[in-house]
Amino acid sequence: MKLKEIQNLFVQEGKKTDPRGERIVELDLLKRKEEYNALSDKKRKIFDIESLTNPYYDSRILFGEENLEIKTVMVGIDIETQELLLAKDLIESGTKIDLVVAHHPEGYAYSTFSNVIGMQIDILNKQGIPVNITEKIVSERMKEVHRSVLPQNNERVYDVAKLLKIPFMTAHSVADNHVASFLQDKINESKPIYLKEIIEMLEDFPEYQHAIQIGHAPFILSGSDYARCGKVFVDMTGGTEGPIESFEKLAIAGVGTIVAMHLSAKGLKEAEKHHLNVILAGHISSDNLGLNLLFDKLEKKFVQKLEFIECSGFRRFRR
Predict the structure, then answer these.
(1) If we measure between CA atoms, which residue out of 294, 297, 208, 213 comes closest to residue 259?
(2) Is the distance from CB of 190 to CB of 245 less than 8 angstroms?
(3) Structural domains in the chain (count)
(4) Are residues 249 and 302 in the same domain?
């Protein structure tokens, strides 16, 4: 399979599993096209053309020829300079590596990923919060993240990949969409009554089994084993942790339990204030689940098993 084919499938499957629904995703892309068409020729030259077909700024090919044939992939949850130097060392020692894939965004994918947070407007709206409210609280979160990213030197890791001539891409929201939709579907099917049932369900999946073995088991952050779930909201995509200002609105909308990757101390206080149960499935383990679901689709599509080199917290589990 070629590098561009991998990217195309990631984006296509990211859209299919997007919690907003494919119609909302297409409306988002249509809006971008309208904005592009309204630009002057000068501004069109510097416009991010890929954003017209790829709604996930944090999931990009950062370096590498699109027609490059890919058979062996080194994958890590975080890929930074040290992992790229490791890849170079392995290559020079005779290990074949065609591509390095990071889950968390780097380079341009990180500089622009605050745009992905806009997904949360429609994700929260689907939980019953009026869209005029979600637009306001999410837009503030987007500005906050954008300000935090601006002063950082975001091209460091990209520059290393380019200088070492190592093809490099990121797969963030395209994978997070998979874990969010997968777990939400499983919970909706099983209709758990108590929080402990959700924990037991998570423990059935190899990514969380591995996490338990290394001391990162899923756990109940707010609530107890026999606290009743009520309506469960799996909140695992949209760039980063959602705005805690949404917790009061979620409780009013009828959500009883949030299943998340992680939650800040401030977020926990806000959840407890509004009597929300919170289960933390685990950050790296959930990232692994999303990536593995995505890679399963990739191998099925091209009827070709890739050779995986696991690093930086990634573990390949096939289904």
Answers:
(1) 208
(2) no
(3) 2
(4) no
Alpha carbon 212 to its chain's center: 21
* Category of 69 on φ-ψ map: left (φ > 0), alpha (ψ -120 to 50) or beta: beta
Looking at the structure, do residues 45 and 83 belong to the same domain, yes or no?
Answer: yes
Joined tokens for residue 240 = 């980063």
Containing domain of residue 188, as a range?
A: 178-282
- pLDDT bin (cut points 50, 70, 90) of residue 70 is very high
Question: How far, in Å, CA of 220 to CA of 56, rounded?
Answer: 31
- Structure-token pair, residue 153: 């030197």
Tell me the C-alpha distance between 244 and 267, whole Å: 6
Do residues 44 and 65 share a domain? Answer: yes
For the chain, the residue count is 319
Q: Residue 238: CB partners within 8 Å, gap ≥ 6?
A: 116, 117, 119, 120, 123, 173, 176
Residue 52: DSSP 8-state: G
3-state secondary structure of 228: strand
Report the pLDDT value the prediction gives residue 241, as an integer from 0 to 100.
81
Structure tokens at 83: 């992992």
Distance (Å, rounded) from C-alpha 44 to C-alpha 30? 16
Tokens of 255: 């959500």
Q: Is the pLDDT of residue 304 over 90?
A: no
Please calculate the CA angle 59-157-311 and round it to the nearest 5 degrees.
Answer: 75
Looking at the fold, whether 182 and 126 belong to one and the same domain comes out as: no
pTM: 0.96
- Whether the CB-CB separation of 278 and 220 falls below 8 Å is answered with yes
Task: Report yes or no on 316 lying in a domain.
Answer: no
292, 316 contact by CB (below 8 A): yes
Burial of 87 (0-12, 13-18, 19+ CB in 10 A): buried
